[in-house]
Amino acid sequence: MLPEFKIAQLRHFVWVAELKGFHAAAEKAHRSQPAISLSIKDLEGKLGEALFEKLNQKTTRAELTPFGQQFLLQAKELIAHHDRVVEDMVLLAENKTGHLRLASVPSIASRVLPALLSEFVGETPDLHVSFFDDNSNAVLKMVEEQKVDFGIAHLFHEQEHTDKTFIPIWEDRIGVVCPNDHPLADSTELHWKELRKHRLIGNGTSRLLEDSEARPLLGASQFYISNMISLIAMLEAGFGVTTLPWYAFPQESKTLTFIPLKTPTVIRRIGIVTLNSRSLTPPAKALVDFILARSQQGDQT
Q1: How many CB atoms lie within 10 A of CB 196?
Q2: pLDDT tens track for 18-35
Q3: pTM attached to this predicted model
Q4: Gene3D superfamilies in the record, alphabetically (predicted)?
Q5: pLDDT tens for residues 113-150?
């Protein structure tokens, strides 16, 4: 017979592991240290393996065993799933219509989704929405780990994602972004080799070039900045130039210029990503249908 885990015990284990000690975990749990130690011992008994190298209450630092390191990931996943279920049920008990979770790349999150979500939520005022924005890799990971109902992202190699369904909706072109007073700023279009003469800044979307003839640029970037706010600040300060998709270019900027990259012409496709093995919740399906309907009307192109 399989052991039955208590969520409280799993939380105690994660806190001891993350805080590196039973005393700190006890303070976080508002329990006594002996109570936390007993909770962990009971969990170890169910598992049949030790989770920590030292279980002496006087030990100030708790180190995970190799088994404990493996179990930590699973425990976090179980807790996250439990909390999502509880949150959804609480909303239903409060006569809410449900909870919708989605993640999107920042460009679509800032340029397209505000208007779409405003209209959609206006028709479903009791819907609770959790929204996350991050790069495509992070969005895909949230989809895979079922932390969100669906994602909006670019698949770098679609053939490697047979476990997902991808519905392309938006397209934008890759270009070079530089300050208005930069030597490249007066160009109407650029060849990738022209960028070799200038300091390059890599970013989360630079990977879009890896399957093109501009691939050598990926190894030529002197700096890499993943955060878009920091990237824009460095560009505005004249620190260098970068490549970005059109949707990611800050339209409100009065100091930066976007120059289309002609050779090669690289197009980014962004769309809705779902897991094949998981059906969408009614609120998630309603939003997906809403986005598709609006995109077919041409409102978001």
Answers
A1: 10
A2: 998 899 999 999 999 999
A3: 0.66
A4: Periplasmic binding protein-like II, Winged helix-like DNA-binding domain superfamily/Winged helix DNA-binding domain
A5: 999 999 988 877 778 889 999 989 999 999 999 899 99
